[in-house]
Amino acid sequence: MAEDLRLVELTLFCQSTDQSAGIVRDLICVKTHLLNLKVGSARGPTGEAPPVLISISIPCDVSGATISDNLSRSIDHASIHTVLFNTLPTRHYTSLEALADYAGNLVLQTSKEVSEVHIELAQVDLSSVVDSISLETTCARDGVLRTGRFVLKNLRCLTSIGSEPLQRHTFCFDVTIQKNMDLSHPFDARALAESLERDFEESSFSTLEALTNFVAKQVLLALGQADDVVTVVGGSPNALTPGDSTQLKITRCLADFPEEHIASNDRTNCSSSCVSLADLLASVLPNISTLTPKHTVAIALGSNLGDRFANIETALRLIEQPNQLLANMDADVAVSVINTSFMYETAPMYVTDQPRFANCACLIETNLEPRTLLRLLKKIETTVGRVPSIQNGPRAVDLDILLYDREIIDTRPEDQRETLDNLVEELVVPHPRIAEREFVLRPLADMIPEFVHPVHKKSIRTLLDDVIRQSNIDFPMLKVIPFADYPITEIRQLPGIDQVPSMGKYWSTRCSNDIQRPTKVRLMATLNATPDSFSDGSVNNTLSAALTYAATSVRAGADIIDIGGYSTRPGAAFVSPEEECQRVVPVIQAIRSHEDQDVSSALISIDTFRWEVAEAAVLAGANCINDVYSFTGPEYPLTEASAEHLLKMREVARKLAVPVVLMHSRGDAGSNKDYNHYKGGVQEGVRVELGERVEAIIKGKGGVRRWFIIVDPGIGFSKTVEANCALLREASLMIANTARNPLAGYPQLIGSSRKSFLGTILERPDIDGTYKGRKTQPKERGWATTATVACAVQQGASVVRVHDVQDMRDVVAVASAVWSFC
To answer: Which residues in 160-294 belong to E strands, given as ranges?
Structure first.
């Protein structure tokens, strides 16, 4: 295939070129034929990933190169081709849209002269249902995919037409779909083709017109978007070859099927919980009106002296207390933190001989004017402990206004604006050095990647890409999760805010646009202080046994102990919050009092979905909350009670400032396993449903800091065996850095240890019947767990939750060594 990949075709359309009118009619076409790329879960008839045909066209003006024959006036299409050839096969793409997005941005990054890229992709040899699926779209310099055109070539369906309904024939169609690109909800054309095949199994029609119209209608109802347009070209059996028979071509949109459209919306727009979580939250939150207009402001926070993460948390809490810090403020002054970025550890810039920084950013809503807001931030710096130092030198905390709405502000006299050496007590917005600072752009891109900089006229995402390409920093930025130290031993009360715990420990993850990999895969040991857990009920439910397990696990290499007092297995007995506390709090206190310092200082997670238990456990010494219901409680479908539960859990987690593991589930672990109404199946279902909860937890006034969130796809909870395998196999896609993915970039925990789906797999006989399968108890699934843990490491999981720490430590060590070089 290499010879095909080297083919570069230069096609020039120069006739009637009118440069004065800005019309460009020249194209450079870079064609790469039949790359074996992994796109989604698509497999061909042989079980291999179907090959993808790729063609890139670059609109340009070649007149300079044609006249001068000067290489510097030409687009370096050879470099573009080489980059595509070397880079595209190294990744797994969630969809054709994701592949188009990556390929387009790859070309734009390779050649600054290119302003937009036209992309044509085609998957061939897919299945017996359709010959090929292709996508044509355009990627612009702002990094956004434009409207795309999907084509299903030779879509086949078995049905009957006319007076002989029992006589069924295969009819063939070309289906063209014009739709808006949405990377967070990719179009699964293969699944659509297969669902159409099922629709035709019981169908019969009197006319070709009715059959063709039915195809258009079913496609539009599956898409469910009012702007989508479908064109169907069809004929009688195997009759797309001209001259074989009559053909019919129709074009339709959803407006042509009003009754079916309404019914479809009732089905598909209704999520699995019937009412969206956002609507439920709106129904239980008080209706707050403001008398003064609000501004949205982006603020950068940094610290490299003292307790860096606690300093930043303190500053964030003080931001919301302007009346406590500034004199003579109006009563209706308001400042609310409504979003935060991830937290990063970064190398110092400009003055490099100093400690590494903790850096992040937040968005606030406020009615403070810029100068007053600047005064507030300076007062916060002093309150936290910043003292005068050299410019760009060490500081306890540093707060900078990066953006204030879309305004351009410079408070200096006009004759003093030529340099950046006179900014003391002055304000320049947007911050003048945003475009050169990765440690500012990354946090902003976490929150507002598509925001267009008012001065540079580029999106934050594009500015970040520009900086990364030019970066030569030895120490890369690391994404970090800080852990609070509990119980609190040192009291430092500041005006108007809750006590901020010290934060001495943290975990880190490398920043990457590919599979996100932690600097170390962490082991979470599972300590069930219960009499009825599925795997080890009644084993560790005495204080001495629990303490022995904790100490043994820490010495074997556990990074955190997850203590639970309420089994979530199907049919488990109800446990009151009081009894749950009585089971877990003494265990936590005993660990904190252990004579071995390694054990007494170990990180502890509390496995609970109740705010009372979470609060009591953390105050007793836990450092993290692990919630199998991601703050919404056990009710399913979600109700107003679920929304109220979320708000209370969010309040407790925000006040305690601890990491939280948010797991996807749907009520009872053994129920609610149907994800068919999601076009992307279980992957899309988990991403949408868990993403909705994460967004509700981190955004808005009172939200939990983004850097405290760890996501868990909920292996074994409300999923079939096949769905669990799919989630494990493609776990990296759940947190992939694709546009509009609500889970993009979050560290991920995988908990598959000893679960029942492994037992189901082990019961299955071999395909040739030589092995009949065997029944297993949870404790007998160690080797099966090993396979899933190795898979989780390969997929970039940050944490694996296990029972057998010693054995799984070896698995993680070897798997990490194997995959760390990928």
So the answer is: 169-179, 229-235, 247-253
What is the model's pTM? 0.70
Q: Does domain 514-819 have CATH number 1.20.1090.10?
A: no
In the block, tokens 């001259």 appear at 243
Q: How, if at all, do strands 247-253 and 26-35 pair?
A: unpaired
Q: What is the pLDDT of residues 304-355, one digit of tens each?
A: 999 999 999 999 999 999 999 988 777 788 999 999 999 999 998 878 888 9
Please write the tens of the pLDDT for every residue from 489-506: 887 778 789 999 999 999
Catalytic residues: 755, 801
Distance separating alpha carbons of residues 381 and 303, to the nearest angstrom: 10
For residue 501, give Cα distances in angstroms to 212, 406, 578, 768.
Answer: 66, 36, 25, 59
Per-residue pLDDT, 54: 85
Output the DSSP codes for 559-594.
Answer: SEEEEESS--STTPPP--HHHHHHHHHHHHHHHHT-
| CATH entry, 295-483, from 3.30.1180.10, 3.30.70.560, 3.30.565.10, 3.40.630.30 | 3.30.70.560
Question: Nearest 5°: phi and psi at 213?
Answer: -65, -35
Q: Tokens standing for 390?
A: 């050299």
What is the CB neighbour count within 10 angstroms for residue 252? 19
User: Helix, strand or coil for residue 189?
Assistant: helix
Q: Which CATH class is domain 147-269?
A: alpha beta
681 is written with which tokens? 């199946």
Beta bridge partners of 169: 159
User: What does DSSP say about strands 603-607 and 624-627: parallel, antiparallel, or unpaired?
Assistant: parallel
Please list the residue range(s) of the chain that carry CATH number 3.30.70.560. Answer: 295-483
- 8 Å CB contact between 724 and 715: yes
What distances in angstroms separate CA 567 from CA 238, 447, 481, 570, 576, one per listed residue? 58, 36, 27, 9, 12
pLDDT band at 539 (very low <50, low <70, confident <90, very high): low
Every domain of the chain with CATH number 3.30.1130.10 lies at 1-145, 147-269
Identify the sign of the CA torsion 401, 405, 406, 412: negative
Query: Sign of torsion, CA 326 297 331 696?
Result: negative
Calpha distance 124→122 (Å, rounded): 6
Question: Is the CB of residue 146 less than 8 Å from the CB of residue 117?
Answer: no
H or E segment and range at residue 211: helix 208-223
H or E element, residue 8: strand 8-11
Q: Looking at the predicted structure, is the pLDDT value of residue 155 above 50?
A: yes
**Residues 443/490, Cβ–Cβ less than 8 Å:** no
Rounded Cα–Cα distance for residues 354 and 344 (Å): 16
> What confidence category does residue 38 fall into, taking pLDDT thresholds of 50, 70 and 90?
confident
Identify the pLDDT of residue 351.
83
Bridge partners of residue 800, in order along the sequence: 523, 750
Fold of 1-145: GTP Cyclohydrolase I, domain 2 (3.30.1130)
Positive or negative, the CA dihedral 476, 480, 486, 489 is positive
Q: Which amino acid is at 615?
A: E
Residues 6+ apart with CB under 8 A from 251: 216, 229, 230, 231, 232
H-state helical runs in 699-773:
721-729, 731-734, 756-763
What's the rounded Cα separation, in Å, for the pair 640 and 189? 36
Q: What is the pLDDT of residues 101-147, one digit of tens each?
A: 888 888 887 777 777 888 888 887 556 678 888 888 888 776 566 67
Cβ count within 10 A of residue 2: 6
3-class SS string, 368-418: CCHHHHHHHHHHHHHHHCCCCCCCCCCCCCEEEEEEECCCCEECCCHHHCC
Confidence band for 597, pLDDT divided at 50, 70 and 90 = very high
Contact criterion met (CB below 8 Å) for 72 and 20: no
